[in-house]
Each structure stands twice: as structure tokens, then as C-alpha cells.
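anyone seen this seq b4? input:
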Amino acid sequence: MGSTVGNFDKNKINEIIKSVKEEVIVHMGIVEVNSKEYEEGVIEGYENKIFEKFVLGPMVFCGFKEEDFVLDESTGLRYKVRFENGMVKESVCLAHDIDFEGCMLSQGATYDIVESRKFSLSMFKEFIAPSCGDNVVMLSESGAMAVCRAQEQANAVEQT
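predicted toks r here
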């Protein structure tokens, strides 16, 4: 498990990890830099046509057209990227009113479509600690790994 962990509620992901009967290894890219330059660099990495397909894909699958979303003239993309509370968020803005399955969606309404959490080492430890305890091992300046064992395995290791 890797960055997927960051896309779940902390309690829910720890509940899932605790339910696994084997070892779970969680490897996560770690970011210690919290600066405007860092945030701008991250945002720039998400602003491209390939990622636009990822962001809009589920919406198009549900029946929306790409033209239903406002085109950002500065990027040439139909979504916006922002960095907020340690997360990269991608959102779309409706270009016109849309009747979607009997629900009226208003022009100008903005919806967050994708969120991706970026962890510092301390955030990662806090996030994963309920199911992994102190089993976090730093691999490098940019990554951390946690080995989470099922309770029976953890008890057996402690007894040896």
C-alpha cells in the first residue's frame, strides 16, 4: 500500500490495515518541505493533459462532456489544482447549468474531484500509528516504510 493510504480517512484505513491477517507494508513518499516554491512545484506536476484525463474521466463516464467544465485560459485545462492543508486538490467548475439525473447543478458551482495527501514523516507516523505502532522505518530522505503485522504475528514475534 502506498499513496492510496493518504486518500482515505485515518480511522478507516487503520481499520482496513488491522483486519489484514498477514503483514502489510506501507511505503509512502515523504515531503518535509513546506514552502510556496514546493507547493507551486507540486501543482505544476499535476497541471497537464494526461492528468486532465484522469480528473475528468469519471465525470465523462457519468455522462458529462468535457465542455461542461470551465476552461482555465492560463493552463488550457478544464480543472484547477491547489495545495490546501497538506493535500493537492483538483476541482472542476461548471460552465453552465446542468440537469443531472433530475438534480439541477448550477453554472459556476465548483466540485473537488481528486485529493492526494502529501505526508511529512511526522504526519505519516501519526496517520499510520494506530495500526502499525512504532514500526516506521525511514528509507531515505524522500520515503518512509511501515511494517504492520497482524496481532497474532506481532505477539509471536514478541515471544521469540
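Residues 152-160 have pLDDT under 50 and may be disordered. The first strand starts at residue 24 and ends at 29. kinda curious what u guys think
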